[in-house]
Amino acid sequence: MSQQRHGNTPGNAGAVPAFPDLPEATIARLPEYLRALHNLAEAGSDTISSEGLAAAAGVNSAKLRKDLSHLGSYGTRGVGYDVTLLIDQIEYILGLDQRRAVALVGVGNLGHALAGYDGFASRGFRIVALFDADLEQVGKAINGLTVRHVGELRRAVVEDGITIGVISTPPSAAQGVADDLVAAGVTSILNFAPCVLSVPAGVDVRKVDLAIELQILSFHEHRKASLTALPGGLVGEGGNQEAVGS
Amino acid sequence: MSQQRHGNTPGNAGAVPAFPDLPEATIARLPEYLRALHNLAEAGSDTISSEGLAAAAGVNSAKLRKDLSHLGSYGTRGVGYDVTLLIDQIEYILGLDQRRAVALVGVGNLGHALAGYDGFASRGFRIVALFDADLEQVGKAINGLTVRHVGELRRAVVEDGITIGVISTPPSAAQGVADDLVAAGVTSILNFAPCVLSVPAGVDVRKVDLAIELQILSFHEHRKASLTALPGGLVGEGGNQEAVGS
DNA sequence: CGCGATTTGTGCACGCCTTCACAAGCGCCT
DNA sequence: AGGCGCTTGTGAAGGCGTGCACAAATCGCG
Q: Might you name a Gene Ontology BP term for this protein (chains A, B) (predicted)?
């Protein structure tokens, strides 16, 4: 592979190193590696082998090595990977060192919980604004933030430099909110509403549908149930551990 | 990933049709088709073309046809698919007609919201039991259910015929809860705790990590930001719409 | 009854991802 | 200094999934 490390292309004027062209599958796994690495660092490990990190992240070690090789070889043969160095690298690649500002729209049942979820703050994000269309909710304080009316969205996005929006409204309102977010300049959306959003080119949408996750599990339950009725029975079936992420 | 060799014996004597051997990718999309179909049915459509359903589900029409062809041919050439027939078929395949009983462990911030989430009840599941290790929470009523102590888990799973468990505890408690669920007979787990669970063969685990979803979006933001700094700029970049699910 | 319009079902090719297997590289011990 | 054990990085092969393009099938209409 032509690995372009920090030795940059001569013509690149930016201070940023050439941005690696990572496979989607790899990108989806980097956060998991990062979490595992943080645990290891906290436990006092300085270095970790691909085997060890793979186990901690729940993946195959060959896959992990190939993933990491894509971002430019930060391991030492015979030793392993430097934990803190790798953390810095992955956080840089993911852009987490910027602690991006996030807006959350819809503080109903789920949105309320998301607004108070520690995991966002502790893993690279700042929820800086909450919105709702319901005047009943507007003005309420959640986790130190005041819920504002969705009409103020545009101004807030610009003022606070928000680049990511989270939608946790009912599905009927989701498309409208998405349109507002895009119009305000948001280019990444995390959608919890069970519906398809249509957005212009250049805007990324990820969808999390909680019921769908259960339905997929239900399928496997159904399959397992119908298999146990068969003569062969289930012999040495491998446990299925699948992580979300496309 | 999975290593399942479910040899489907041709001489299946059961009244149930031979269980189809669906690709994982197809399974993950069936729930989305189902949701779109319910919307269409509510709107009064009797039949729908692959093109129309694909648009409603946010996928390519060829992909949709191939997916549906895997579960037998329920369309009519020149006409399209019968909406209600297709709904019944997909619900049967996913095992949703059984309205599986679900246990939820951990009624903290997120768990509380999940316990009250309408989407579960309206899309084929019954949350029948809530558990927590915190005695402060035990006894409280959420959405008509009383929170019980996690020690009662085993008995409840057996008595209520629970087959799916949802873990929304802190990561430190998740593995223990998973062990308890498995010991009680649960064979499918939806894990919201940001950690890897190890479970015996035959148990399915799906993981939803909210922070990871944001981190993936953050990567794309980072990439987009570094691209706009380049001379070419972004030319006709296709909007990325990715759904969760492996 | 036949024809054309329409839409499904699918063979095929391509690309991405995973996994194996091993050479290359590194540190440690003697 | 040299050899040995350990670990990374990667070439190659195979499998899976996607999307095109088209044949087969069905309906409606003249």
A: response to redox state
The answer to the question of residue A156 being in a domain is yes
Residue A106 lies in a domain: yes
What is the reported pLDDT for A231? Answer: 53
> How many whole angstroms separate alpha carbon A215 and alpha carbon B94?
6
The answer to whether the C-beta of A120 is closer than 7 A to strand D is no
List, for residues A92-132, the tens digit of each pLDDT value: 999 999 999 999 999 999 999 999 999 999 999 999 999 99
Residues A146-202 have pLDDT tens digits of 999 999 999 999 999 999 999 999 999 999 999 999 999 999 999 999 999 999 999
pTM: 0.91
B81 and B113 housed in the same domain: no
Give B174 CA → C16 C1' in Å.
34
Size of interface A-B (CB pairs under 8 A): 309
| Residues A191 and A140 both lie in one domain | yes
> How close does chain A come to B65, measured CA to CA in Å?
19
Q: Are B131 and B150 in contact (CB under 8 A)?
A: yes
Residue A5 lies in a domain: no
Q: Are residues A122 and A69 in the same domain?
A: no
Shortest Cα distance from B115 to chain A (angstroms)?
10
Measured in angstroms, what separates residue A31's CA from nucleotide D1's C1'? 44
B148 and B78 inside one domain: no
Which range marks the domain in which residue B59 is found? 24-96
Question: Are B85 and B168 in the same domain?
Answer: no
Number of domains in chain A: 2
Neighbouring CB atoms inside 10 A of B214's CB total 27
Considering the domain architecture, whether residues A131 and A89 belong to the same structural domain is answered as no
Q: Could you give the residue ranges of the DSSP H alpha helices within chain A?
A: 24-42, 50-57, 61-70, 83-94, 109-115, 118-122, 153-160, 171-184, 210-228
CB contact under 8 A, A194 and B35: yes
Q: How far is the CA of B172 from the C1' of D21 (A)?
A: 53
- Taking alpha carbons only, the member of B206, B139, B194 closest to residue B169 is B194
Let me know the angle formed at the C-alpha of A230 by A225 and A231, rounded to the nearest 5 degrees.
Answer: 145
